Amino acid sequence: MTVTNPIAEAEALNDKLAGLDLAGRLSLVSGLGGRVVFTTSLGIEDQVITAEIGTHRLPIDVATLQTGRLFPETLSLIDETESQYDIRIHRYEPEQADIDAYAAKYGLNGFYESVEARHACCGVRKLKPLARALEGASIWITGLRRGQSANRAETPFAEYDAERHLLKVNPLADWDIDRIKAFVAEKSIPVNPLHARGYPSIGCEPCTRAIKPGEPERAGRWWWEQDETRECGLHVAEEAAAIAAQ
């Protein structure tokens, strides 16, 4: 896919995607040319996208960041999903040298001690593997939704990621959690059993807790930090730029 004006291209694609259903959105994007990559954390919304990719046999690479600290339930779901949809979920792991360097500087669980240390851990275990997963890609598909958190409330269907030089597509941007759950039930899509135990958003085991009644979906992520807009950096331009500089 050759793009001469990526921002205008993203805006035009955003308008086209708005009028399509999920299958139509994914089909359109997969036919634009170039390598298309969907990164999944195996959360309920990501499972919806994976199911559609597998069911319709779309030419989209499915990748996950196997950080080394995931819940056993998440690891089991990777295998179950591959089997059910006859697809390959490519695993991208952190480099052992990076983990060792992190542990030497901060301690293995130093992310509890400071925001700097937590960002550094996410950089080693998530951002650097993501960079490898997206090598050669022209389009990156995510499971971002507007209802996940306040700082994701304006999520578009398509945008230009200037740091990674690709189009970023969020086909579930306008889906709420009730619609997600109804689709999962209708299509018998396998989901992480932790969702039923109060974990609407699931990341690394040491950094994720069940949420309390009335809390936002992502309140259980990095719960010891006070910043309500906290993120791991995957969807934050500044973090991506820092990794690219390295």
Outline the structure in words:
Helix 3 (44-55) crosses helix 7 (177-187), helix 5 runs antiparallel to helix 6 and helix 6 (115-133) packs across helix 8 (237-245). The protein has helices spanning 6-18, 22-30, 44-55, 72-85, 96-106, 115-133, 177-187, 237-245; strands spanning 35-39, 61-65, 89-92, 137-141, 158-161, 166-169. It has one domain (6-90, 133-221): HUPs (Rossmann fold, 3-Layer(aba) Sandwich), CATH 3.40.50. Helix 4 (72-85) links the parallel strand 2 (61-65) and strand 3 (89-92). It is built from eight helices and six strands, in the order ααβαβαβααβββαα. Strands 3-2-1-4-6-5 form a six-stranded mixed sheet. By secondary structure, the protein is α/β, with parallel strands linked by helices. The chain is globular and about 45 Å long.
How are the SSEs ordered, and which strands pair?
Blueprint: H1 6-18, H2 22-30, E1 35-39, H3 44-55, E2 61-65, H4 72-85, E3 89-92, H5 96-106, H6 115-133, E4 137-141, E5 158-161, E6 166-169, H7 177-187, H8 237-245
Parallel strand pairs: 1-2, 1-4, 2-3, 4-6
Antiparallel strand pairs: 5-6
Structural class: alpha/beta
Q: What CATH architecture would you give?
A: 3-Layer(aba) Sandwich
Query: How far apart are the termini?
Result: 27 Å
According to DSSP, the number of beta strands is: 6
Fraction of helical residues: 25-40%
Largest beta-sheet details:
6 strands, mixed
**Quaternary structure type:** single chain
Query: What percentage of the residues does DSSP assign to strands (E)?
Result: 5-15%
Counted by DSSP, the helix tally is: 8
Mean pLDDT comes to 90
CATH fold topology: Rossmann fold
Tally of domains:
1
Q: What sequence of helices (H) and strands (E) makes up the elements?
A: HHEHEHEHHEEEHH
Strand order of the largest sheet: 3-2-1-4-6-5
CATH superfamily: HUPs
Low-confidence runs of at least 5 consecutive residues: 235-246
Cα shape: globular
Identify the CATH class.
Answer: Alpha Beta
